[in-house]
Amino acid sequence: MEENKSNKLPKFNSTEELVDFFDTHDMGEYEEDMPEVHFDVNIKHNHYLISVDKYLMNKLLEIASEQQVSVDMLVDSWLKEKVLKVS
User: Fold this and answer.
1) What burial letters (b/e) apply to 28-63, b meaning 16+ CB within 10 Å?
2) Which contacts qualify for 27-36: CB closer than 8 Å, 24 or more apart?
C-alpha cells in the first residue's frame, strides 16, 4: 500500500513568509492544499519604438544606471510626468 506523502501547507502571516517558505520547499508537495484560482490576462500590450540620438541615449543610460532602473522605466516615468503636466 502506497503512503500519501502530501504535506500540509502552513499558515502564513505575510506574503514575504510565503515566498520565503517556497524558496526552500517544493510547491508540488503542497498541491492538494493550493486553492484553485482564475484570472484574466491582457496580452494586448503595445510597445512603440522611437529613435534617440547617440548623445541623448548615452545620458539616459548613465542616469538610469545611477538610479538603478532600466532606460525604458526611466523614459516611461519621465514621459508620464511631462504628459500629466500638460494635460
Assistant:
1) eebeeeeeeeeeeeeeeeeeeeeeeeeeeeeebeee
2) 29/5, 30/6, 31/6, 32/6, 33/6, 33/8, 33/9, 34/9
C-alpha to C-alpha distance for 79 and 86, rounded to whole angstroms: 11
- Tell me how far apart the alpha carbons of residues 41 and 43 are, in angstroms, rounded to a whole number: 6
Task: Yes or no: say if 76 and 60 are a contact pair by the CB < 8 Å rule.
Answer: no
Q: What confidence tens digit (pLDDT) does each residue in 16-68 have?
A: 999 999 999 998 888 888 888 898 888 887 888 899 999 999 999 999 999 99
